[in-house]
Amino acid sequence: MFILKRQDVEISSIQHPKRDQQVPILHYQGQTFRLISVFKAGQEEEARALWRELTDNRGKACVLLEEPDRFSVWGKVRLDQLGSDTGGHSKNGIYVQASLLLLQAIYMDIEEFLGTRQASLFQKDIAEVLRQQKFPEASTLEAVKHLVTINPLDTAKLPPWQENHLISLLQELHKLGKTYFGNVNFAHQVTDRLQDMAEAERSLFMTWLNQSSLSKLWQ
Q1: Could you tell me the pTM of the whole model?
Q2: How far apart are CA 9 and CA 122, in angstroms?
Q3: For 12-20, which contacts have Cβ atoms below 8 Å and span 24 or more sequence positions?
Q4: pLDDT 10s digits, 198-209
Q5: Distance between CA atoms of residues 200 and 47, nearest Å
Q6: Does domain 2-84 have CATH number 3.30.200?
Q7: Is 36 helix (H, G, I), strand (E, B) or coil?
Q8: Contact status, residue 163 vs residue 93, Cβ threshold 8 Å
Q9: Phi and psi for 73 in degrees, rounded to 5?
Q10: DSSP-based three-state secondary structure for 148
Q11: In what side-by-side order are the strands of the sheet with 22-28?
């Protein structure tokens, strides 16, 4: 929709109505946009790819903001919508999709290479992790059996996990993968395991992953 410079816009922040966090808001010509993703100065191509995916392929009203040290993508929003900003179009929804795809890929590898008995044990181990950390809608073995079979790209079926849940899940998933496979080679194939995702969404998740504490585990 728009490619803008920093001097073209005003940026402020407001308190999220349902979460203990400040939400960056970009103001341009009477319209408001919220931050979707931030890219480093050398990632202009990735930033433009996400912006084009959202504007051209999804029909979203978005701003690509060019600054000397970074690029950022912002999506149009009404301030009264912030409290209900969930689902597949949110960053968090994309992170949940990618995390479930990684969980399913490792589960299928264990089943294929180590057998169904080990796969069943893996399900129990994951269920125990989710139970201990009180993951919403996923604290039983039956829930885990459901998670490893659903289509994560169907946003209506995604569990309501937040960023802290996903970081915990991916940390524990790495530990379990290392235990079952005896090495960490499985963690070096993240992009390959996310081929079902749209390129822009995959790029968004990888940016988040690389900027988080998980970057040393998943490469």
Answers
A1: 0.61
A2: 50
A3: 14/79, 14/82, 16/82, 16/83, 17/82, 17/83, 18/82, 18/83
A4: 777 888 898 889
A5: 9
A6: yes
A7: strand
A8: no
A9: -115, 135
A10: coil
A11: 2-5, 62-67, 70-76, 31-40, 22-28, 10-15
How many residues are given for the chain?
Answer: 219
Three-state DSSP class for residue 164:
helix
Which of 68, 69, 63 has its CA nearest to residue 24?
A: 63
Sketch the domain layout of the chain as residue ranges. Answer: 2-84, 91-214
Other C-beta atoms lying within 10 Å of the C-beta of residue 26: 23
CA distance 50 to 54: 6
Residue type, 210: N
Q: What is the pLDDT of residues 161-193, one digit of tens each?
A: 888 899 999 999 999 999 999 999 989 889 888
Q: What angle do CA 113, 115, 120 make, to 5 degrees?
A: 125
Tokens standing for residue 87: 């689902």
Please tell me the predicted confidence (pLDDT) of residue 56: 84
Phi, psi of 62 (to 5 degrees): -135, 155
Q: In the chain, how long is the greatest CA-to-CA distance?
A: 60
Per-residue pLDDT at 88:
38
Which phi and psi (to 5°) does residue 14 adopt?
-130, 160
CA atoms of 213 and 55, how far apart (whole Å) = 30
Beta strands 2-5 and 62-67 are: parallel
In whole angstroms, give the CA distance from residue 37 to residue 47.
Answer: 8
Task: Record the tokens describing residue 190, joined without a space.
Answer: 């993240």
CA distance 148 to 159: 12
